[in-house]
What does this fold into?
Amino acid sequence: MARIKGGLMAQKRRRNILSEAKGYRFGRGTKKAQAREAIYHAQTHAFDHRKDKKGDFRRLWTVRINASLMRHGLKYSRFIKALRGKNIELDRKVLATIAIQNPEAFDRIVAEVAK
It folds into this structure.
């Protein structure tokens, strides 16, 4: 049986790893072993930070809603409790968008909740 050398596949693997590490600094962009380790860490952090991003946006929406409520003399926590009490089903993302882009509509929502 003929011997099969692995040169072609090794080149392909190396090329794929280095193309994924394109733009990395120092040896991480040019050396296979360093590139593989850098890619592993990058993917780990990307997964973690995708999860963190959800919390970051929720905090951002809370801050935006609270800032808009200050004009009305309301606090965020009391506003959210009043929303639930009136069975108004708007989530924080929608409320924050309305507060920034359409303040008149947000004023009407606050007026409805404050009744």
Remarks:
- The chain is about 75% helix and 0% strand.
- The chain has one domain: 7-114.
- The chain has a mean pLDDT of 94.
- The CA atoms of residues 61 and 90 lie 12 Å apart.
